[in-house]
What we know:
With 208 residues, the protein is of the alpha+beta class. The chain has one domain: Sandwich (Jelly Rolls). It is 20% helix and 33% strand. It has three helices and 13 strands. It has helices spanning 46-54, 72-82, 89-109, and strands spanning 2-5, 11-15, 17-21, 35-40, 63-68, 113-121, 136-143, 148-151, 162-163, 169-173, 182-183, 185-188, 199-207. Strands 3-4-10-7-13-6-5 form a seven-stranded mixed β-sheet. The chain has a three-stranded mixed β-sheet with strand order 1-2-11, with no helix packed on it. Residues 1-10 have low confidence and may be disordered. It comes from Roseibium porphyridii. This is DUF1826 domain-containing protein. Pfam families: DUF1826 (PF08856). InterPro entries: DUF1826.
Amino acid sequence: MTILEAMDDTPYRVASDVMSGPEPEILADIHLRGVAASIWNRTCEPAFVDWIDGLPVESLPELRTTVPVHLAEAAAIAACEQAKIPSSSERDILTGDIAALAMMLSKTLDVRQMRIRLDVSDEMMCPKFHMDNVPARLLCTYRGPGTDYVPQEDLSEPSRIKSVKRGAVALFRGSAWSGEERTGLLHRSPAVDESVGARLLLVIDPID
């Protein structure tokens, strides 16, 4: 944690620590002092990976919606139907996981409404390191490489850049996070992996 001096000479703290662990409860650490991101390190089942990687780009589900948490799974199912993805156990895993992550975010941040996106891209969606203008943002990459992140103070040191694993769940504070701490952790889309093809990224933003 770094102490900086504000414009009015009042000291304020910069949160740039990252907490990670193998259990979903780690996401609640986003509320800890000095923590800018919490990451649930998990891996996708091989059968799911084979299935999602085998889908043609035009069959990857895309979604842009704002819903109460209890409708997250219905929205994900509708996106899969729109993409004409046949019913299967793997599709159920995807839609069920989106619903579960929406519920986790709801409980972690005490919100009931959320903005849910499924982004499909074979290009770097956000190539520059940045901070989102939201209180917090949950990211999970189902296909392709995970999100890169780095403390703002280490931006000029490439060796300090780290990446969220594919399938892992990352909860980042945004610039609108409430409290006295300023968020000092930046993130970006990873470089395109042509061997994998299009990337499928889940984004969930809380809505007060």
